[in-house]
Amino acid sequence: MLYETGPAVWGTFLAYLLATFFFAWLAQRKARGGAYMEEFFVGGRSIGPWVLGLTWIATSASGGSFIGVPALAHTNGYSMLLWIAGYVISVLVGFGLLGQRIAYVGRKTGALTFPDLLRDRYDSPMIGGVSGVALIILYTGYIVAQYVAGARVIEAVLGVPYLWGVLGFAVTVTLYTTYGGFRAVAWTDAFQAVVMLIGVLITVTFAISKAGGLEAIRAGLEQQDPALLSPMGPSNFLPIAAAISFFFIWPFAGAGQPSLMTRYLAADNPAGLNRALVLVAFYVILTYPAIILIGVTGRVLVPDLVAPDHAMPATIMAAVPSWLAGLVLAGPMAAIMSTLSSFLLVSSSAIVRDMVERNRKESLTEKQAKRWTLGSTIGVAAVCLVFALRPPDFLQYIVVFSGTGLAATFLTPTCLSLYWPGMNKTGCMAGILGGFTTFLAQYLAFGTRSFLDFDPFVWSLLFSLLFCIVGSLLGQRDDAEILVRYFDDYKA
What we know:
It is built from 20 helices and no strands.
């Protein structure tokens, strides 16, 4: 065991896991009749604004937020406040740019998955298939990151070896995801979002107090390394160009996540998304600066870590009384579990809906759909588990790679597909492939800093936009019948 715990920690932690399974069971019992696929993948389009807002938060705030970000803050100090600042407005961009539009189009066209939106917009099985493949490839990294994060918490706090921790964690989340589908994921997300907020606020309060206040923290950091107090961080961690690019990355990378777009498809009323937006905005403003402070304070309280990703659990164990530690430790675990369940669901839906059912002459029967859903979810979980057996040093780098890769691939084609009647099949395919390939090429050639020290995402998004426009100008215009369905004011 890396950090001392006791029965209170174990008991509270296990109670949290039991409560999660209870909400999954309750959601499954409350599931509406209707079509199995619609219920399993979008909760029967009956998710209200408050639950929708909380599931959006819980999906967005992944193991990267609660494990990876504190690890980077522990290593790089207050520069992480500048690194994460742009994330605060990601909510406004996501809900404002795509939320109501996706909810409206989804209801009108019957789309159940993100690739459905693009496939039906152009009546193109190829676009649906390519979108599904790219989605699964990029979400593999994201899922691996969640496995690693969950196992790190279990390893650091409960003393379970990493291998057994990652196996147990993977099985636990896969079970309740396959059991209840989207409704179970949304309900458990809502519960987990509350646990996350309580955990963060308790931890930051106790950690700052334990360290002697903000001035004592500043003095402690200066004694270790004055660069921990600088905007650029140690070893020029955050150059000016990189800092600027993150103000661009977080809002648009967040908006371009298929797992978050799926939440809009599940809304019971598109107009209610405004209430969800207010809830999410307040939550993000409360949570993310506090997470950075936890990581920075941990540098003073627990300067020497076995692994950087232990920063959050180690700080909790050092600062929070043992009788509260179990509840607080459930916060990062809740973030990881909620995100992982959403990613598994999005990946399995891409296989079942977009690669299997939509390419058959007849729809899957309910029995066939259940078999495919179970098999694909377990299959994705197993493949990602294999990659997680050899974890990286810094979890957050995988999270940033996968998140920005998804947005570079899908954000521009999705926005133009929903708002520009002139966008056509050629432009959409060019934008998807162009964004995906230029993103991978830059990472392979330059790593995390591309031309002018900007993140590869910035250039990939611009390339994707260029490919979309050029492809649309060169390609054949879509049928008027399709455009009328998507654009109410379009005149054939």
